[in-house]
Amino acid sequence: MANKQEITLVGCLILQQSRLQQLKALARDSAWLMPLLQAVRELNLSSWCIGAGTVRNLVWDALHGYTPPSPLGDVDVAYFDTERLDVAYDRALQARLTAMLPDVPWEVTNQAAVHLWYQRYFGCPQVPLASLDDAIASWPEYATAVGLRLEADGELTVIAPHGLDDLFAMRVRRNHARVSVDTYRQRIEQKRFSERWPKVQIVVE
Fold it and tell me: What whole-number distance in Å separates Cα of residue 39 and Cα of residue 99?
């Protein structure tokens, strides 16, 4: 007979699988997100995703019943390429996306190059990241440490190193991997989570 720990583990796995399928369904049913994923796929990057606030908005808007969707400040395209660390390449990719979908606020960033500029902007050093998954795992809040990729065969891949619990619980918690308490508090103020999505729970440190 299974013990309580085993039963709890199985329950958690089932819940995660359910949320995974729910996220994929939301993406597939989104009239605005699928064209974005299709456009980025056209760049033929080996390791990429659309993530952070774009995925957060998709889920939290759905859970709040918002139509039309909340406006996006930017669409975060993250990719990982250790051979192209120059910012000019990011800008070139962004220009290609803008040519395809001019009205989208694209923001393209090579996560392999983050350590080269992070301290200049945020005041603390960042070790080189090992992969796209490693990069996503360090994003500011667990709820936004999620990415979506559209594969060549049309399948959707979800990258969620910390799982999907915070995203679907609409819970904002600081990811200690990279963000300081001060930066986290500034983000809470700037992003206006509670104002935009009243059901959101913010964990204040």
Answer: 10
* Strand 156-159, strand 171-172: pairing: unpaired
What is the residue type of 105? P
Give me the sheet containing 147-150, strands edge to edge: 106-110, 75-79, 48-51, 147-150, 156-159
Token output for 196? 């935009």
Taking residues 159-174, report their average pLDDT: 97
Question: How many whole angstroms from its chain centre is CA 82?
Answer: 20
Closest among 8, 16, 10, 11 to 161, alpha carbons compared: 16
Asked whether residue 31 carries a pLDDT value surpassing 80, the answer given is yes
Q: What is the band of 63 on the pLDDT scale with cuts at 50, 70, 90?
A: very high
User: Which residues contact residue 70 at a Cβ distance below 8 angstroms, ignoring those fewer than 6 apart?
Assistant: 57, 60, 61, 196
